[in-house]
Amino acid sequence: MKKYEIKVPVVACSWDELSEEQKKIVAIAKDQINNSYCPYSGFHVGAAAELKNGTIVRGANQENAAYPSGLCAERTALFAAGAQYPDQPVVRLAIACYTDGHFTAEPGSPCGSCRQVMIETEHRYKQPMEVLLYGEKETLVFRSAADLLPLIFVSENLNG
C-alpha cells in the first residue's frame, strides 16, 4: 500500500490584502448576486470571470423548480465566456455568496460540477486561472482551479 498526502496551496486574505485587480473582480462577483434567481434556496451566488483581454464575464446562479435544471454562478460565467470569447483564456474567477440578508462570513466553495468545469476551462486554454472565494471574514485565493480539485479528470483520461 502506498500513502499519498495532497497539499493545497491557498492564501487567506483580508480585503486590504487583495490587489486592486482582485478587489475589482470580487466586487463584480458580489454585485452579481443581484442577478441571482434563487426563489427555492434563497442562496445567492455571483461570479465574475476575467479574460486575458481584460473583459469581465458575469454569472449568477439560476434555480428552477425542476432542481437539476438550474445552474450555478460559476458555470454561467464560464460557459458564457467560452461561448462569447472562445479564443480568450480565463485568468481569474471570483465567487461570492449571499444569504439571509448578508454575504457569507466564510468563503463559499464551488460544487464538484463547477470545479470540473473550472478544470476543463484551464485545460482548454492550457493555463491556470486564479480563483478567489469571497467571505466577509476573508477571501481565499487559489493559484489554480486544480488546487480545488487536485485529482483532475481531463480529456487525456478518456484515452486510458
| CATH topology term | Cytidine Deaminase, domain 2
**Named CATH architecture:** 3-Layer(aba) Sandwich
Domain module count: 1
- Percent of sequence in beta strands: 15-25%
Class based on secondary structure composition and strand pairing: alpha+beta
The number of helical runs is 3
What is the CATH homologous superfamily assignment?
Cytidine Deaminase, domain 2
CATH class annotation: Alpha Beta
Question: What order do the helices and strands come in, and which of them pair?
Answer:
Elements: E1 11-13, H1 20-31, E2 44-51, E3 56-60, H2 73-84, E4 90-99, E5 102-103, H3 112-125, E6 130-134, E7 139-142
Parallel strand pairs: 4-6
Antiparallel strand pairs: 1-7, 2-3, 2-4, 4-5, 6-7
Key descriptive features of the protein:
24% helix, Cytidine Deaminase, domain 2, globular, alpha+beta, 3 helices, 160 residues
What does this structure look like?
It is a single chain. The chain is of the alpha+beta class and 160 residues long. The protein has a single domain (11-159), classed as 3-Layer(aba) Sandwich (Cytidine Deaminase, domain 2), CATH 3.40.140. Helices cover 24% and strands 23% of the residues. The protein has helices at 20-31, 73-84, 112-125; strands spanning 11-13, 44-51, 56-60, 90-99, 102-103, 130-134, 139-142. Strands 1, 2, 3, 4, 5, 6 and 7 form a 7-stranded mixed beta sheet that branches. Helix 2 runs parallel beside helix 3. The longest helix is centred in the C-terminal third of the chain and has 14 residues, at 112-125. The model has no long low-confidence stretch (mean pLDDT 96).
